[in-house]
Design brief:
- This is MiaB/RimO family radical SAM methylthiotransferase.
- One of its GO terms (molecular function) is tRNA (N(6)-L-threonylcarbamoyladenosine(37)-C(2))-methylthiotransferase activity.
- The chain is of the alpha/beta class.
- Helices cover about 30% and strands about 20% of the residues.
- It has twelve helices and 17 strands.
- A hairpin with a 4-residue loop joins strand 16 (about 465-470) and strand 17.
- Helix 6 packs parallel to helix 7 and helix 11 (about 325-340) runs parallel beside helix 12.
- It is globular.
- It starts with a strand and ends with a strand.
């Protein structure tokens, strides 16, 4: 096969990041070489997201921009926005660009065989965003998509264990784009986690589209049995030098079985990210999420903090859902005040055609959605500062660095008193005297590089550190010297 170069662009969730890495490895194995600029590529692939209208718009803009930057490359659009792209109608006279190959999410794994197949035509058939058609297509692909990875471009890899969702939240388009739930076999998950840890990664993010639906499609147990199996298989070798983190859970999963599993796992970070969405039960019911209550989360956090006296707690929150009142917003703000929140991702509600909420009465003006989102972010920011101030008092933490190799390269360490703006890296370019990472509580850490010649014992793995100062949205930490 001729030598060819490819360029990958990824939007959206951690599962998309995982699938891009799988494509990267597959294309390398087929003789491709990844390049750093689209203009150098023979193939450009956009792995898109459609969770919000902005995500879909970003995909369209990327296609337009990349067509200009790489006019001779084979341009592929895949991911959740691909199906929506097919039905998008630009304004009359608008400047427009289309991909050479349109691969909807449910067919993305076919790209593992290479970027050159036309998938039934010079341009793939224009799939419909009709819900019945999407369901029929997704149902025809019942097996777990055959993505797998042995490395990751980032220091903290994603481990995909589940795909799809059958819940049908009234605002969410994911069931139309990713289909019904499918669960990965436990033995494949354990084997991949072991490969990643043996490759030197110190932290793995266990991820899926809806972890609460893991195991419902097969006799694989539920998510909690999977978590216990992962910990049992990996902890004897890796506990203390590597760890697991869970990407996202719902409050309803935090029952006694879930709490017992969380507290029993030796490799698990004391951190939860919760798909909360709102603090008003009335709004949750309109969202199609009446199967849990905010009180469930409060009770679970109270139980966990008895064993995890320090923990990170993040959440996804939607502002300005149709029919949301000031009273609903007040309930959400009060919930944020009561919880030991360390961060949150706040999104103004985004209308998605094909979802029930798009047809709801009580749609809220865009300006008001933005104003409410700003108020929520201010409340979360105050909680985050309280959390970080408490973190500053901890005597010790373990940090997973974004670039742990920097600590094993003495030539890159900053001499005492050096001007950080003038310090060169291996390529002779300016570099700062700190490396970004996260601690076990998911606080962002700026790790000070040690003075040249100073022993730290640092290398690959989890780095013992002490906090020394507050940063704008995190901590400044210094490594604990080896004895």
């Amino acid at each position: 096969m001729f030598a060819w170069k490819f360029y990958l662009v990824t939007f959206g969730c951690k599962v998309n990041q995982y699938e891009t890495q799988s494509l990267r490895e597959a294309w390398h194995a087929l003789g491709g070489a990844e390049c750093n600029a689209p203009a150098e590529a023979d193939v450009v692939c956009v792995n898109s997201c459609a969770i919000t209208a902005k995500g879909e718009r970003d995909a369209r803009n990327a296609v337009f921009r990349l067509r200009r930057e790489a006019p001779h490359a084979r341009l592929i659009l895949t991911g959740c926005a691909a199906r929506l792209f097919a039905d998008y109608k630009p304004r009359p006279g608008a400047i427009w660009a289309a991909p050479d190959l349109l691969v909807p999410q449910e067919e993305k794994s076919r790209l593992l065989d290479g970027p050159w197949a036309d998938l039934d035509g010079d341009r793939a058939p224009r799939p419909s965003a009709d819900a019945a058609t999407a369901d029929a297509t997704a149902t025809a692909l019942q097996a777990f998509p055959p993505f797998q990875i042995s490395a990751f471009k980032r220091a903290r890899p994603v481990l995909k264990v589940q795909d799809g969702c059958a819940h049908r939240c009234t605002y969410c388009i994911v069931p139309l784009t990713r289909g019904k739930p499918r669960s990965r076999p436990v033995d494949e998950i354990v084997a991949e986690a072991r490969r990643l840890l043996q490759a030197g990664h110190a932290e793995i993010m266990v991820s899926g589209i809806n972890l609460g639906q893991y195991g419902r499609d097969a006799q694989t147990g539920d998510f909690w049995s999977l978590l216990r199996a992962l910990d049992a298989a990996l902890a004897p070798e890796f506990a203390g030098t590597a760890r697991l983190r869970i990407s996202s859970l719902e409050p309803g999963q935090l029952d006694q079985q879930g709490l017992d599993a969380l507290l029993a796992c030796r490799m698990l970070c004391p951190h939860l990210h919760i798909s909360l969405q709102h603090g008003s039960q009335r709004v949750l019911k309109r969202m199609g999420r009446g199967h849990y209550t905010p009180a469930m989360l409060e009770n679970a956090v109270a139980a966990l903090t008895r064993q995890w006296p320090v923990m990170g707690l993040g959440a996804d929150i939607i502002a300005g859902f149709p029919g949301e009142t000031e009273e609903d917003l007040r309930q959400l703000l009060e919930l944020i005040e009561r919880l030991p929140m360390s961060y949150a991702h706040v999104f103004p509600y985004s209308r998605r055609p094909g979802t029930a909420a798009d047809r709801f009465d009580g749609q809220i003006a865009h300006s008001l959605k933005l104003e409410r989102a700003a108020r929520l972010r201010e409340a979360v920011a105050r909680k985050q500062q309280t959390f970080l101030a408490a973190q500053l008092k901890l005597p010790r933490m373990l940090v997973a660095a974004d670039n742990p190799q920097a600590f094993a390269e003495p030539a890159l360490a900053a001499p005492a008193g050096a001007d950080e703006a003038s310090m060169p890296n291996a390529a002779g370019k300016p570099k700062k005297n700190s490396i970004k990472g996260v601690n076990e509580y998911y606080a962002v850490c700026a790790i000070r590089l040690p003075a040249q010649g100073k022993k730290t014992g640092a290398g690959a793995g989890l780095l013992p550190a002490r906090p020394v100062a507050l940063a704008e949205k995190g901590l400044v930490v210094e490594l604990i010297e080896s004895e």
